[in-house]
Design goal:
Layout (H helix, E strand, L loop, with lengths): L2 H18 L2 H21 L7 E7 L4 H11 L4 E6 L3 H9 L5 E5 L3 H6 L7 E4 L4 H29 L24 H32 L2 H6 L4 H29 L9 H26 L2 H18 L12 H7 L3 H15 L3 H30 L1
Helix pairs in contact: 1-9, 2-7, 2-9, 7-9, 7-10, 7-11, 7-13, 9-10, 10-11, 10-13, 10-14, 13-14
Length: about 375
C-alpha cells in the first residue's frame, strides 16, 4: 500500500471510530434522514383532490341533481353536506368543514331549457389561495364539460336537426409523471436536501471539534500531509452520505413507489459528485469557523436553507423575483435537483444533463481546493 494511502487510511480510521462512538452524530447522519424521508413522503403533497364540498340546490330539479352528481362523482371533490341558506354555507366555510360551495339558483332548469345561459355560483375559501385556485379550475372544467353535453343534447332534439357545428377538441397527453402524482416530483428533490444536511452539518463539526478540543496540534505533528488529513477526515462522512443515498432511493422505490425511469448508474455517479462538493463545503466551513456552534450555524445558513428554499425542491424558481433567481444560480442543490428529476421522471441521460454535471464537477473541485488552501494558511 502506498505511504500516502496508508496515512490517509489511518486518519479515516480515527474519524470512523470517533463517529461510531458519538451517538448524536450517528443519529444526525442516519436517523434524521430516515425521519425526513417518511415525514416528507407521507405529509408533504401538492395534490389537490377530495376537496370538501357543500351544495345549496335551490332548483331541486333533475338537471340540477345531475350537475351535483358530476361533482360528487369526481375524484377532485368530496360532497360533505347539503345546505339550505347562505348562513349555513358561511358557517361551514368558517369551520373549515368545506373549502368550496356550489350554489344553484331556483330558475336553473328553466333557463337551461330556454338556452338562456343559466349560471351557478361557486364560493371558495380564499385563506388557502393555492388550493382555492386549483379547486376553482376543477369546478369550471366540470361545469363546462357538463354544459357542453347538455347543449349537444338540445341540438339533437331539434326538428329539423341543426347543422353540425365544428368545434375544437383538446386531447391532453401527459408525457412524464402520467398520473400527476406530486410525490413523484417531490421525492427526487428531497434527496439533495438530505445529502446536504448530512454532508454539510456533520463535516462542518469535524475540524471544528479538533480546534476546540486542542487535538489539532497533535494531528499537525503527525507525519501526514495536509491533503491527506482533509481527505482522511472526509472519508467516514462520504460513507455515511452513500448510505443515506441508498436509503433514500430504496425507501422511495419500495415504500412510496416512486419510479426510477432513468439510469441507476448515472444517478449514482452524479450523486457521488454532488456529495463530494457538499462535503467540501462542510469542511471549508469547519476550517474557517474553528468552533462547533459557529460551524453548525454557518452550515445551516449556507447549505441547508438554500437547499430548501432556492433549489426548486418545493417552491418554483420561475415564480421568484429576478434577484432571488439570480442568487439561486450559485446554489449547487438547484442543479442536482434538476438532475434527479430528469433521471427519475424523464429518463434523460448525460447528453442532456451535462451542463448540470459540469457545474457539480467544477463546484466540487473549487471548494475542495479552497478548503486545502485555507487550511494551509490557518496552520501557518
Amino acid at each position: 500500500m502506498p505511504a500516502a494511502l496508508r496515512r490517509m487510511t489511518a486518519v479515516a480510521r480515527k474519524e470512523f471510530l470517533h463517529l461510531l462512538r458519538d451517538p448524536r452524530s450517528l443519529a444526525l447522519g442516519i436517523v434524521m434522514p430516515l425521519i425526513m424521508l417518511f415525514l416528507f413522503g407521507y405529509a408533504l403533497t401538492l395534490d389537490v383532490d377530495r376537496v370538501p364540498l357543500a351544495v345549496w340546490d335551490q332548483s331541486g330539479t333533475p338537471q340540477s341533481r345531475e350537475l351535483v352528481s358530476r361533482f360528487a362523482g369526481s375524484r377532485y371533490f368530496s360532497l360533505r353536506r347539503y345546505a339550505a341558506s347562505y348562513a349555513e354555507l358561511e358557517r361551514a366555510v368558517d369551520r373549515r368543514d368545506v373549502l368550496i360551495a356550489l350554489v344553484i339558483p331556483p330558475d336553473f332548469a328553466d333557463r337551461l331549457e330556454r338556452s338562456d345561459g343559466p349560471t351557478v355560483q361557486v364560493i371558495l375559501d380564499g385563506s388557502d389561495p393555492n388550493t382555492a385556485t386549483i379547486a376553482q379550475g376543477y369546478a369550471e372544467a366540470i361545469v363546462l364539460t357538463w354544459s357542453r353535453q347538455v347543449a349537444l343534447q338540445q341540438l339533437a332534439r331539434r326538428s329539423p336537426p341543426a347543422p353540425k357545428i365544428p368545434s375544437l377538441e383538446i386531447r391532453p397527453r401527459v408525457w412524464f409523471n402520467t398520473d400527476l402524482v406530486s410525490r413523484n416530483f417531490i421525492f427526487p428533490g428531497l434527496i439533495p436536501v438530505i445529502m446536504m444536511i448530512v454532508a454539510a452539518l456533520l463535516t462542518s463539526l469535524s475540524m471544528a471539534r479538533e480546534w476546540e478540543t486542542g487535538t489539532m496540534e497533535q494531528l499537525i505533528t503527525m507525519p501526514v500531509r495536509r491533503w491527506e488529513l482533509v481527505l482522511g477526515k472526509l472519508a467516514p462522512y462520504f460513507c455515511v452520505g452513500v448510505l443515506d443515498l441508498v436509503l433514500a432511493v430504496g425507501v422511495g422505490y419500495l415504500v412510496f413507489d416512486v419510479p426510477l425511469k432513468g439510469s441507476l448508474w448515472l444517478l449514482t455517479a452524479l450523486s457521488l459528485l454532488f456529495l463530494t462538493g457538499a462535503l467540501a463545503v462542510g469542511m471549508l466551513i469547519s476550517i474557517v469557523a474553528r468552533g462547533q456552534l459557529l460551524a453548525s450555524q454557518l452550515a445551516l445558513m449556507v447549505t441547508v436553507l438554500p437547499a430548501f428554499l432556492l433549489s426548486g425542491f418545493i417552491f418554483p424558481l420561475e415564480n421568484m423575483p429576478a434577484p432571488i433567481r439570480a442568487v439561486s444560480h450559485i446554489v449547487v442543490a438547484r442543479y442536482f435537483v434538476t438532475i434527479l428529476r430528469g433521471i427519475y421522471l424523464k429518463d434523460v441521460g448525460l447528453a442532456t444533463l451535462w451542463p448540470q454535471a459540469l457545474f457539480l464537477l467544477g463546484f466540487a473541485g473549487l471548494i475542495l481546493t479552497a478548503a486545502m488552501l485555507i487550511f494551509r494558511k490557518k496552520l501557518k
